[in-house]
Write a structure and sequence with these properties.
There is one protein chain. This protein is of the alpha+beta class. The chain has a 5-stranded mixed beta sheet, with helices on one face. A 5-stranded antiparallel beta sheet has the order 23-22-21-20-24. A 4-stranded antiparallel beta sheet has the order 11-12-14-13.
């Protein structure tokens, strides 16, 4: 019977060994030398912690049953476990035990089950929530526990408050803290009647025997949870879910574009510690008219989608990338799919933004404090619950948290907040609608790039359906016309085409954003268009071409009036000069007290000069109501289109970095198993080193030279640095310069031996 894990591993077939490595891929990285190394790694704290995190609540309860039944001999039987789990069918118990055996957490035959030696260190010290035996706690308590009749009488005589304390400790954990142990109260009564045992100075413990008596109605293991909780999920119509999600998609696309444009107009500086400052986040949230949390989420997603990045320079700042312009030209559905995929693979936790880290420092957007490698897995786990429910099912957030807590109780503490954040972010981004997963969102979860190699060497999954196709059917078609009204407002009855959006941004100001955005044409917006190089005729043509209604006369008059005054002044470098054919206008400027700071001086009937730079002269003249334009040295008017700075996009991996592969391919498993079998054979051979039949260095060198030719393995006996005689099974490669170089097939390493230390060389048995 195997009493060690390595013995149990040696009895496994290749298929069973492959199942173990597939379930615990961390055991194969790097490839263990032999089964002994695999056994040590499988029982290490780090590897066992990973394995335990993937177990559901019922399997962990059965593991506690094995630990409990194995005391004090260290071994248990399947019959013992079934007897403890009285409230659960035997088949369910055996299934849980099979799962534990597949993971090598429990090993051995049915008559002698053992638990990995590090499991007790990682689990609670009280299996199944039961305390230590009374004999280990207090002799007087042990004497009472040994008398069932006296124990029953003491329990019946316990006051209600004392009985409540016992019931609480019996449910587990069996240890309680006593604030005032010497005061009169239920705890003192229990201590005096030997129903509790003092554990430390301020703690008491319920003995195991008493806990079993108190659990006689629910069973020795307490209440078991073999089945996961079923979420209460009302089902909504698929059409209403998709419609609500599509509306949010349009809002997210609008906000993302507005965010990038806001950063282009006023780049946000990069903090010394990295990320974006709180003031800049507040400014951006106000410009987008959204909450700071939503703005932080959009920043993180835009950075992951390579729409914004940190631009190097004298003052590093966050700027849109050149890829933002390409993204903006895509159809709306494809734009959203890119954002959604970036969010799913985002190895960061936007929900942490605004909180403080372990060093009491605020976590800001795009900073290192929000990085979490586990975020994509936790995000997909939360959305995975929605995919398992019928289409249109909208479970409560707490129900999703409860279900995931059952599936992985050891992750429940840190996963609860991540689950809530994931569902809230999914609603904000339009992945869900009315609390249910949308049809196109379901397809985004299975979308994968076809033929794209995985950075970790894992075979890529086959590509799923394109989620942009069903989403495009839900989104309104982009419009290329507007409604120009008499009050100089421009109504866009739908999402504008990229070209129309660029034109509107140039000639009008946003007054009301939304599904039907409203712009307003003002004097400043018309002047902005003229500064960009357009003429009055160009503006008339633009409005006539884009407006589906007759262009109001008020708009025509506004354009003509601004154009008539536009360019009446010419500004150049003197530091700056100001030129005009209208001498009366120049005289007005010299006399204008508002422009006194410019120190204007007339050097010719049609020319004024100023010590200020051109941009400052233009700015002050426009602020006071004039309409100057800039010109070059030859008198040619310079078009001034608003600057749209761009940063170089930085290459980011599609898959976030992970410490270990999530799965191993069939070929990888075969290679690892083959290496383990070779290492095991070499280890067995190393334990059977023969008595050397060559006992001189000269004869040993002769045997070694022959082995180099025949590529035969040789047992080399040599004196190590401590003066001890050591034998090693190697395959000689070369001899020269006083050294032997030989390969160790077991460890796949090359060794170098000094010839004067070699005392024997014996051919290995073939």
């Amino acid at each position: 019977m195997p009493t060690r894990l390595v013995d149990a591993l040696r009895e496994l077939s290749d298929a069973q060994l492959a199942a173990l490595l597939a379930a615990r891929p961390d055991l194969a990285v790097p490839v263990p030398a032999d089964l002994s190394a695999l056994s040590s790694r499988a029982q290490s704290r780090l590897s066992l912690a990973r394995a335990l995190e993937g177990l559901d609540r019922f399997t962990l309860e059965i593991l506690d049953a094995v630990r409990l039944a194995a005391e004090p001999t260290g071994a248990a039987t399947v019959g013992d476990i079934v007897a403890l789990a009285t409230s659960v069918p035997e088949g369910r118990v055996r299934d849980a035990l099979t799962r534990l055996r597949e993971l090598a957490i429990v090993y051995g035959p049915d008559t002698e089950l053992h638990v990995g030696h590090s499991v007790d260190e990682l689990c609670t010290p009280y299996p199944a929530g039961l305390g230590r035996p009374a004999a280990e706690l207090d002799p007087e308590v042990a004497a009472l526990a040994a008398d069932p009749g006296a124990l029953r009488r003491e329990l019946l005589a316990a006051p209600p408050a004392a009985r409540a304390v016992l019931d609480r400790l019996a449910a587990g954990p069996p240890v309680g803290t006593v604030r005032e142990p010497d005061s009169d109260g239920p705890v003192r009564w229990l201590l005096d009647h030997r129903l509790l045992a003092p554990d430390r100075i301020d703690t008491v413990q319920l003995p195991r025997e008493l806990g079993l008596v108190l659990r006689r109605e629910v069973g020795p293991l307490g209440e078991l949870h073999p089945d996961p909780p079923v979420p209460d999920a009302p089902v909504r119509s698929a059409a209403s879910v998709d419609s609500a999600g599509a509306g949010q998609v349009m809002e997210v696309l609008r906000l993302t574009a507005a965010l990038c444009d806001a950063l282009a107009d006023r780049p946000a500086p990069v903090l010394k510690s990295g990320g974006l400052g709180v003031r800049d986040l507040r400014r951006l949230a106000e410009s987008l008219a959204c909450g700071e949390g939503d703005c932080a989420l959009l920043l993180e997603v835009a950075a992951a989608a390579e729409l914004i990045t940190e631009a190097d320079g004298e003052v590093p700042a966050w700027l849109p990338t050149a890829g933002y312009d390409d993204w903006r030209s895509l159809p709306p559905a494809q734009r959203w799919v890119r954002l959604a995929c970036a969010w799913l693979e985002l190895a960061r936790q936007p929900g942490l933004i605004g909180t403080r880290d372990d060093k009491d420092k605020a976590i800001t957007p795009l900073s290192g404090g929000a990085a979490r490698l586990s975020a994509p897995a936790l995000r997909r786990a939360a959305l995975g619950v929605l995919t398992e429910l019928p289409a249109g099912a909208a479970p409560a957030v707490d129900d999703v948290v409860a279900l995931l807590s059952w599936r992985s109780p050891r992750r429940a503490g840190r996963a609860a907040d991540a689950t809530r954040w994931a569902l809230a972010e999914a609603a904000t981004l339009g992945v869900t609608g009315r609390g249910a997963l949308t049809g196109y969102g379901r397809e985004v979860l299975v979308e994968a790039p076809a033929g794209e190699p995985d950075p970790l060497g894992i075979e890529p999954m086959p590509a799923g359906p394109d989620p942009a196709v069903p989403l495009a059917e839900l989104l309104p078609a982009p419009v290329d016309t507007v409604l120009v009204q008499a009050d100089l407002t421009v109504v866009v009855p739908g999402p504008p085409e990229p070209a129309l959006a660029a034109e509107l941004a140039l000639v009008a100001d946003v007054e009301s954003a939304g599904q039907a955005a409203v712009y307003r044409v003002t004097t400043a917006s018309v002047r902005r268009a003229l500064d960009a190089g357009l003429t009055a005729a160009d503006l008339h043509t633009l409005f006539a071409r884009r407006s589906s209604t007759p262009v109001p006369q008020a708009l025509t008059y506004l354009v003509d009036d601004v154009a008539r005054r536009h360019g009446g002044l010419r500004v150049g470098a003197c530091s700056a000069y100001l030129r005009s054919e209208d001498t009366a206008l120049l005289a007005q400027l010299v006399a204008d007290r508002r422009l006194g700071l410019l120190a204007l001086r007339q050097v010719a009937p049609t020319v004024l000069i100023s010590p200020f730079q051109v941009h400052r002269l233009l700015e002050m003249l426009r602020d006071t109501g004039y309409a100057p334009v800039a010109e070059d040295a030859g008198g040619v008017v310079l078009a001034q289109r608003p600057d749209q700075p761009r940063a170089l996009a930085r290459t980011r991996p599609r898959v976030p970095p992970r410490e270990l592969p999530a799965q191993l391919s069939r070929d990888q498993l075969d290679q690892v198993i083959a290496a383990l079998r070779r290492g095991e054979r070499a280890a067995r051979a190393a334990n059977r080193a023969p008595n050397p039949d060559v006992r001189s260095t000269a004869d040993a060198i002769t045997v070694l030279r022959e082995a180099i030719t025949t590529r035969q393995r040789i047992w080399v006996g040599y004196v190590d640095a401590h003066g001890g005689n050591v034998s090693r099974l190697v395959r000689p490669v070369s001899i020269g310069a006083g050294y032997l170089r030989a390969a160790d097939d077991r460890t796949e390493t090359l060794h170098t031996f000094s010839l004067h230390r070699i005392v024997s060389a014996t051919p290995a048995e073939v």
